[in-house]
From TrEMBL:
<protein>
    <submittedName>
        <fullName>NAD(P)H-binding protein</fullName>
    </submittedName>
</protein>
<dbReference type="InterPro" id="IPR036291">
    <property type="entry name" value="NAD(P)-bd_dom_sf"/>
</dbReference>
<feature type="domain" description="NmrA-like">
    <location>
        <begin position="2"/>
        <end position="99"/>
    </location>
</feature>
<dbReference type="InterPro" id="IPR008030">
    <property type="entry name" value="NmrA-like"/>
</dbReference>
<dbReference type="InterPro" id="IPR051604">
    <property type="entry name" value="Ergot_Alk_Oxidoreductase"/>
</dbReference>
<dbReference type="Pfam" id="PF05368">
    <property type="entry name" value="NmrA"/>
</dbReference>
C-alpha cells in the first residue's frame, strides 16, 4: 500500500519522501502545483491537490495505507480550519490506517477530528528547523553579518532531515499512537551561537549584531517588509516561550541515534553561506 505525503515539496515533506523511498516504500507526493516538480526521488508518484479544497484530494487517497498531513498551509501557516475534519473523514472512508499530523496537538477542529477518527494517529511538532538559518544566507554572503533583535532567545532547533526520519518511521512502522511528540535537536542555541557555528563551518569571520526594536523596524522597512509583518515578528520574538529551549529525547528514541547538532548541519550547508 502507498504512503501519501502532503506538503511533499516543502522543508519537511521533501525529506519524508526521500526517507520513505530509501526504505523501499511506495510514495505518493501531494502538491498544489505538480507540473514541473523536481528533486524528488525516482519512483515517487506526484499528484495535484489543495488541502484547502478537500474535493481535489479524492484521487490522492486511493489505495493509501498511511498519510502525513499538514496541520496548516501557506507561508503564513494558516490552519486548515473546516477543511481539516473533511480531510480526516476522507482518509477514514478511503481505508487509511495510520496518520501523522504536523501539529503541536493543541485543541482545534483538525486535532479533534483526528482524535475522534479511530485511526492510528500521532501529532508531530518540530520546535524549529535548522534550515530556517538559510534565511541569513544572503546577508552572510554579502556582508558577513547577521543583524536581528532579541539575540538572547534560545531555541532547540532540529535538523529537518532528522524530523523527517521520525515521521517516516511512524508512517512505515507505527507505534507511539495517540501521542503528541515534540522534536528538537540536542541543544538550545541563541542566534549568536548559530552564527558562530556557521562561521566555523565556512572558515569566515561572521558577526552577529543585536538590534533594538526601533533598529529592526528601520532595517525591515528598508527591506520592504509590510508594517503588520514587522510588528508580528517583533511580538513573536519578544514573547518566545521558554519551552522552545527545552530539549527532548524523542528523535533519538525513534531513529536510534542522537539528533544532529547545529554545527553538523552548518558544515553540511556551508556552501550556502559562502560568497
Amino acid at each position: 500500500m502507498t504512503i501519501l505525503v502532503t506538503g511533499a515539496t516543502g522543508t519537511l515533506g521533501r525529506h519524508v519522501v526521500r526517507c520513505l523511498r530509501r526504505a523501499g516504500h511506495p510514495v505518493r507526493a501531494l502538491t498544489r502545483t505538480p507540473a514541473g516538480v523536481t528533486g524528488l526521488p525516482d519512483g515517487v508518484e506526484v499528484v495535484g491537490g489543495d488541502l484547502t479544497r478537500p474535493l481535489t484530494l479524492a484521487a490522492a487517497f486511493d489505495r493509501v495505507s498511511a498519510v502525513h498531513l499538514l496541520g496548516a498551509v501557506g507561508h503564513d501557516h494558516t490552519p486548515l480550519g473546516a477543511a481539516g475534519p473533511q480531510i480526516v473523514a476522507m482518509a477514514v472512508e478511503a481505508g487509511v490506517q495510520r496518520l501523522t499530523v504536523l501539529s503541536p496537538g493543541e485543541e482545534g477542529d483538525l486535532e479533534q477530528a483526528v482524535r475522534d477518527s479511530g485511526l492510528e494517529w500521532t501529532f508531530v511538532w518540530p520546535i524549529d528547523f535548522m534550515s530556517n538559518a538559510l534565511g541569513w544566507a544572503e546577508a552572510i554572503r554579502k556582508t558577513a553579518q547577521v543583524r536581528e533583535p532579541y539575540g538572547g532567545r534560545s531555541t532547540a532547533s532540529v535538523d529537518e532531515a532528522d524530523a523527517a526520519a521520525v515521521v517516516a518511521t511512524l508512517l512505515a512502522e507505527g507505534g507511539h499512537a495517540g501521542r503528541s511528540l515534540t522534536l528538537t535537536g540536542p541543544e538550545a542555541l541563541t542566534p549568536a551561537d548559530k552564527v558562530a557555528a556557521i562561521a566555523t563551518a565556512t572558515g569566515r569571520e561572521i558577526r552577529f549584531t543585536e538590534l533594538t526594536d526601533d533598529q529592526a523596524r528601520l532595517q525591515w522597512r528598508a527591506e520592504g517588509w509590510p508594517a503588520e509583518g514587522i510588528e508580528f515578528m517583533l511580538h513573536m520574538w519578544a514573547t518566545v516561550p521558554d519551552s522552545v529551549a527545552s530539549v527532548t529525547s524523542t528523535v533519538e528514541e525513534l531513529i536510534g541515534r542522537p539528533p544532529r547538532t547545529f554545527a553538523q548541519w552548518a558544515a553540511a550547508h556551508a556552501d550556502a553561506f559562502r560568497p
